[in-house]
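Pipeline run #58 for the internal structure catalog. This entry was flagged by the ingest filter as a single-chain record with no existing model, so it goes straight to prediction. Upstream metadata was stripped on purpose; only the residue string is passed forward. Reviewer on rotation: M.T. Logging verbosity set to normal.
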Amino acid sequence: MLARWCACRWLVATGIAVCATPAAALPAFDEVRADFRPSDTLILSREGEVLQRLRTDATVRRGQWVPLADVSPALRQALVLSEDKRFFEHSGVDWRAATAAAWGNLWNQRTRGASTITMQLAGLLDGDWRQGPGGRTVPQKLGQTVAAQVLDRRWRKDQILEAYLNLVPFRGELVGIDALSRTLFGKAAHALDDREAAVAAALVRAPNARPALVAQRACGVLRDMQPPATTGAVRVDCEALDVFATAALQRRAFDASEGVAPHLARYALRQRAGSASIAAGQATAPVPERVSTTLRAPLQRFAVQSLQQHLRELRGRNVEDGAVLVLDNATGEVLAWVGSSGQLSQASEVDGVLAARQPGSTLKPFLYAQAMAERRLTAASLVDDSPAQISTASGLYIPQNYDRQFKGWVSVRTALAASLNVPAVRTLVMVTPDAFHRQLAAAGMPLRETGDYFGYSLALGSPEVPLLHLTNAYRTLANGGRASPVAPTLANGGRASPVAPTLANGGRASPTTARPAPRFTQALDTSAAFIVGDILADGNARARTFGTDSVLATRFWSAVKTGTSKDMRDNWAVGWSARYTVGVWVGNASGAAMHDVSGTSGAAPVWAAVMGFLHAREPSRPPRPPGALVRAPVRFGSGADSPQPLEAARDEWFVPGTQQSLFAIDSIAKNQDSASAGALKSLKNSAAATFAVPDAPGARITAPAAGSVIALDPDIPPASQRLQFVAGPAAAGADLRWRIGGKPLGRGARVAWLPWPGRHVVQLTDGQGRVLDEIRIEVRGAGVAPAGPQPGRS
């Protein structure tokens, strides 16, 4: 026996000498804390608030580092009682427990292990001393013993306990007290009570034990936690603890990601990883623990709430997704980024800010700005809003207006503010699709295809553009035609910084560290950009389509444009104030069409709500006109069928060199309009004076042309969709009947029809039903049929 004891002493001495060198290399507490990496990354607002928690490490579930002061006293007590009762007394190794364990092993007696919290921490810090499947070897045990004593000399007791609580594995993938408390108990570590603390301490001993065994050990820990004076007086209900432990071990309350900015979080992480990789010259970079962004927390929460509330109000119209983006005009910083409607969406992972969608009429301001800059048009120029059939390689292109009715001759101000489609297409014919394509690219909207690919539909927003690029392009208009990229969402390279006080409405609150000024390039003519903004802020010019009491009207200065893509798949509202640019998209991530949702009922209410929040306590005044801009009074001539002026006289803005005082239809247009008016008057007189209407064997369908493809704009309210069928030349005084798909439509030389998508056969007959002419047309786009049977629906 004596020989055996001496051999053990010699082995211990030798082992200690061998293990002294690696134990001396143990890290300091500050090094361990600095190297700690949670499995989640916290995305912070510019105020320092947590906007999103995003899991970035799938191999382990590790929460944030929790200081010992933020751990509940109950848990600290339970852990010490369960793992190391003399933790505050020994010097890293409990020699009394080690002697008892060794004596028990000598006599084959089962005793409690002698591993202290400090020794276990040493094993967590150095993998060489970590326990394997078959237990620790003798050298590992000796090395762990030496390391524990070194730790105890270098670290304070509170540091040892704090590091242990944050590094110890608990159950499954859960490591550290933050992940455990949030996953099993749905609360922070400082809020754990005695019962929860006992279960947590029991899991340290056997992380993957059966719930019944965990509850049994937790019951013993809970008994030890009772004050000595009350031992025996307070009975621990182990059966109830068993039920509680079983339920807790099945709970998963710690979601992989939670917050109000999931899409921005992923974008910011990709952005930071890219910048860090470039700086380090490597392909990948370590995932940060915290990332500070330029977002405003109050504004972000309000934008999420407003979007979700409005989409709930649109329930039943087949719309479930949306996106909101807010930019600072001066810096390009992203102040709010809402990528989806969250739980309301069946595709909540799709980021609506980055997804490419058809922008509809929101491209018109850039078209008119280009036409003004090239001195082709002015804000007072008259453009013809009448039926147009434009020949293209694929057939006739027949654009329609918002209300399916034509306004005749209107000014450019009215055409843009009222979002008239036909004048926009006529303007693109002057500018050319290729030139407009280059203009969009200069404004920050690079399109994959060429201008010729889209043709004249480019004026009505046929290409696909992300909300991020479209909103930043409107920021270009807000900045007088000067374009710059959106500033990185990271604040100061992703590091937290001191911030200024936060306003209650999410107003000015910028980091005190100055950001580099954005680099602007002149993408649009300054004067043209100002005039377009003045038009989009003109409620009176907008009234012909949207009315005077529109949701687009704000109590402060703002300019805004709505748009809807074909088949009502995408709905937009983008505009700016003196300081902010706000873009809103509403639709379906799946691409499904909405039901009866227009620009003013879809995205515009959300846009107005966000703008109102931004300017609840912050004014927005009209911008100052550029120095070279000219403002002059203008008058308008009368129309062909009315002695009244086409529009009321007013003061108008002009690009230098384009101003004039009178705008009227030229003589050729006047003669044509007069002839048409005379023919219409003759038709009315003859119909009123004749009772027996003769046949018209020479009558033909003159509009639309055979083979026409009618492109409906879903920005138009369905109830206002009308297509005019016109007969001639022998139509005057004739008894003419119209049929579509074999069903009667109307009588007379001119009838209006509510278009419906599909291919249709249109027939013109006389009073006896003989077919005088027949054409085939195709209608493309979305429409909603009113109640009752629809003639010509196929």
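catalog note: Residues 2-24 form the longest helix (23 residues).
catalog note: The first strand starts at residue 40 and ends at 44.
status: ready for reviewer M.T.
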